[in-house]
Amino acid sequence: MKTFLAKVGELDRKYILFDGDGVVVGRLAVRIANALRGKDKPTYTPHIDTGNFVIVINASKLKLTGKKNEKKTYVSYSGYRSGLKTLKASEVRAKKPERLIQDAVWGMLPHGRLGRELYKKLKVYPGAEHPHKAQNPEIAKL
Known about the structure:
- By secondary structure, the protein is of the alpha/beta class.
- The protein has a domain at 13-64 and 97-139: CATH 3.90.1180.10.
- It contains 5 helices and 6 strands.
- The chain has helices spanning 25-37, 68-71, 89-95, 98-108, 113-119; strands at residues 15-19, 53-57, 73-77, 84-88, 122-124, 138-139.
- The radius of gyration is 17 Å and the shape is globular.
């Protein structure tokens, strides 16, 4: 038996649509990260991007469990002195709800060249509308 290794030219990529309406952030992020890496395919190869494109709609309706809405913080640093900014999850949801799922997925991807390439295939929208209807996305079952 020979080990199968996928080659870049042999891959077929699909668009997968995830609906975040009432879904817990972490559980959705795991499914998205696996779809981006291609771990749900039999042709998965760890060092090659074998994954699909992922579209997430209704990011503003995602659910956080427990007291995460008040206690979870999102931190960003500008690089300057006193440039540290911290926001609660409720503030992030009000300003930019896409960041909730984007940060969760980014933490589950490899942090290097491959991870950055995978992350570019993630498209997140706060409402139900998205501009990728021409790609005929496959609706994921949660």
